[in-house]
Design goal:
Length: 155
Amino acid sequence: MSKLKSQRMKPVNQLAEKKEQQSVVIYSQCLAKVKALEEQLQKLYSYREGYNQQMLNLSAKGVGSHRLQDTLMFMNNLNKSIEGLLIQIQHQKTLCEEKKKDWMVRHNKTRIYSKVTKKYIAEEQTIQNKNEQKLLDEFNQSLFQRQINSKPDSK
């Protein structure tokens, strides 16, 4: 006898759940990377603010132009780093959206397979109940027939 549909669906469900879990892991890693990049960006903003303050203090003290030029060059490089990091963050967020969509697709497939399996189980249970009822009816019918046949004729 072949396997029931619900039993044949078991590996499909397991594979779908496994792929969904893998998608969740990839998506969460992506989100963690965005968070790390944003924390790095906040540090760079903080450094820039510190150097802005230092620049104001240096210019107020009348420090030499060579030192001001060095500080300006450093701040220019810091601004370029911030711009590059903003681009990285935007790229990573776009990637995260793709990973989220992939996870949602896999999640929906898992739910669909689960619903189909539950439907098969319900159908199989209905068939089993009908078969059991049929057997019970046949048994009762045969029992009734024996009782009728075992009664002596009253003539």
